[in-house]
Amino acid sequence: MKATPPPEILQAPLVVEFPFTRSLGPVQSAFLTGLRERTVLGVRTETGEILVPPVEYDPATAAELRDLVEVGVTGTVTTWAWNPEPRRGQPLATPFAWVLVRLDGADTAVLHALDAPGPEAVRTGLRVRIRWAAERSGAITDIACFEPYDSDPVVEHRPHDGLFADSVTGIVAPARLDYTYSPGAAQTRYLRGLAERRTVGERCPSCTKVYVPPRGACPTCGIATTDRVEVGPAGTVTTFCIVNIKAKNADIDVPYVYAHIALDGAGLALHGRIGGIPYDQVRMGLRVEPVWSEDGRYPDHYRPTGEPDADYDTYKELL
Amino acid sequence: MRPDREVAIVAFAQSDHRRRTDDLSEVEMVMPVLHEVLRQTGLKTSDIGFTCSGSSDYLAGRAFSFTMALDGVGAWPPISESHVETDGAWALYEAWVKLLTGEADTALVYSYGKSSPGSVRDVLTRQLDPYYLAPLWPDSVALAALQAQALLDSGTTDEPALAAIAARSREDAAENPHAQLRGARPQGGYVVRPLRTGDCPPIGDGAAAVILAAGDRARELCARPAWIRGMDHRIEAHSLGVRDLTDSPSTRLAAERAGAFDAPVDTAELHAPFTSQEVVLRRALDLDDSVRVNPSGGVLAANPVMAAGLIRLGEAAARIHRGDSDRALAHATSGPCLQQNLVAVLEGENRA
């Protein structure tokens, strides 16, 4: 069989979601705890500049910075950008301006959203103030957004010891990204074969090794695999392990056996669970065959065929 | 300061950049450009002394996708190999350093990006400061728009000037068969004001590869090698609110260290994903109208993220290979608002 383009591209939604738990240094902890208490802290550099939001090391000299000051909750827009279509996770659900705001008493600007009726209401130099979130936890989102607020700029700041009751020491930053996964040509061909209960590998035209599952390239020769080769259905356990710890959300009782299985005709072993035999009777050389999932789209596990065990020499190169 | 060892880009290949490549896995997309640079030089995989790649798993949401892509170079039995989780321009930098040490005489550098499976504007928010920025999900266009407005406010540029950069880039791309946007198109409405559709790069998938070689090996492999006379990369302060967004001191410093100001260049390939960023880079690099900027159409015509910077080095080198340039500057960037910048100076030897 020659490799041919798949009739149609396989696609599936893929969600990558992870809550990053991050610890805070002393300056970040004071700043984020301060936001919870509606207090904005900056940090003073050796040259007397007040950085808001504060960092723990001077961006110019790398000196350790610990000298905290309290700055105002009003400030001035230093640049802005009108966002007509808010995206998931952004501070406001209605059109808003992204702004960099230099708070009164600070020398640097903080990024956030500005709630304004439209772009004509926003300009660089606009005076604004913080709108606090109703529920605050010690995070940058404790600032709900900025809002226009006419006031005179003040440049005062006063020392702050950074001490609060119950200071936050970490944040949990959830992240979610949505993708549409498509497996590419070789893996699409493989998955379509599986749906017909056929395991079809692909052969390297140079070294003739048959890859199962195929990924499109021979990692030894660095060229595309071409000829399609049906392998199995039966194969040989080349090595295995006994799993004694239940994986989260897995509905398989432990202990069970996970094995490398060299399907007949394949140039390397694939992974699979072994069933239909007590876990302590699985052995290298055991002959197995696939048991297809209920919807018949992939092998759920492999079970013994009842044939005599394979001779070691027949699979020693596939370990 | 000139490097102790002569190293040149001797081959360059890139894919035809497309909005989607659903029919191809990463390795299936990368393999043709790897084979093309090997074909150009006549080298085999086993002749390559060092291999280095650049990519990011976040783009397509595929964990360890770079190990899958490695299948395409014939990495088994193990080869001397490395990977950077950023643009391939930095992979080229690593390979250059490797060749300067004398540990290898040839290097294969490649990179690829598939932005189509995800939403690249949102994906790129995950590279930001996790405490103060990432929780707000400020997307890549929004951050560039803040920089663009700062430029407008400073009087450095205006919307018609930005539109002219967009038009020139896509008109130049008409001659580039690999580009995704070939030929001028309307500026369109605001994506994030003041940036319009035309000010933003296309979203797409693609791959690129180059081969580096040292000394006489380079002369054997290429009729007119593009010698790397200097290369350096520098970074801005972490927080956007600390920076002057209308300037790029890191680009200027990298260019100084790469020797860019020692003699005029005739060509510059600038990695400016947004029109406004070309304005910043031209000023930082002191490029006047005598310099041909982005004859390829640049990133505004094709933006395979993670490969787009390497392509700037490749396009500049290819121009030297063809005899269209004698001394070219190539620039690559990474991060929001030109956060990190790499500058290389490439030269062809005098023609008889």
Topology overview:
The complex is a heterodimer of chains A (319) and B (352).
Chain A: E1 12-23, H1 26-36, E2 40-44, E3 50-51, E4 68-71, E5 74-83, E6 96-103, E7 110-114, E8 127-132, E9 143-148, E10 158-159, E11 170-181, H2 185-195, E12 199-203, E13 210-211, E14 217-218, E15 223-224, E16 227-231, E17 235-243, E18 256-263, E19 270-274, E20 287-292, E21 299-304, H3 312-315
Antiparallel strand pairs in A: 1-11, 2-3, 2-4, 4-10, 5-6, 5-8, 6-7, 8-9, 12-13, 12-16, 14-15, 17-18, 17-20, 18-19, 20-21
Chain B: E1 7-14, H1 26-41, E2 50-54, H2 57-60, H3 65-70, E3 81-84, H4 88-100, E4 106-114, H5 120-123, H6 140-154, H7 159-173, E5 190-192, E6 195-196, E7 205-214, H8 215-221, E8 226-235, H9 249-258, E9 267-269, H10 275-285, E10 292-293, H11 308-321, E11 327-334, E12 340-347
Helix pairs in contact in B: 4-11, 7-10
Question: Mind explaining what this structure looks like?
Answer:
- The complex is a heterodimer of chains A (319) and B (352).
- Chain A has helices at 26-36, 185-195, 312-315; strands spanning 12-23, 40-44, 50-51, 68-71, 74-83, 96-103, 110-114, 127-132, 143-148, 158-159, 170-181, 199-203, 210-211, 217-218, 223-224, 227-231, 235-243, 256-263, 270-274, 287-292, 299-304.
- Helix content of chain A is 8%, strand content 38%.
- Chain A is elongated and about 90 Å long.
- Chain A has two domains: 25-168, no CATH class; 232-318, OB fold (Dihydrolipoamide Acetyltransferase, E2P) (Beta Barrel).
- Chain A is mainly beta and 319 residues long.
- In chain B, helix 4 packs across helix 11 and helix 7 (159-173) crosses helix 10.
- Chain B has a ten-stranded mixed beta sheet with strand order 3-2-4-7-1-8-12-11-9-10, with helices on both faces. A two-stranded antiparallel ribbon of chain B has the order 5-6.
- In chain B, strand 5 and strand 6 (195-196) form a beta hairpin.
- Chain B is globular, with a radius of gyration of 19 Å.
- Chain B folds into two domains: 7-118 and 202-221, 3-Layer(aba) Sandwich (Peroxisomal Thiolase, Chain A, domain 1); 120-200 and 226-347, Thiolase/Chalcone synthase (Peroxisomal Thiolase, Chain A, domain 1), CATH 3.40.47.10.
- With 352 residues, chain B is an alpha/beta fold.
- Helix content of chain B is 33%, strand content 20%.
- Chain B has eleven helices and twelve strands.
- Classes of the chains: A mainly beta (319), B alpha/beta (352).
- At the A-B interface, strand 1, strand 5, strand 6, strand 7 and strand 11 of A face helix 1, helix 5 and helix 6 of B.
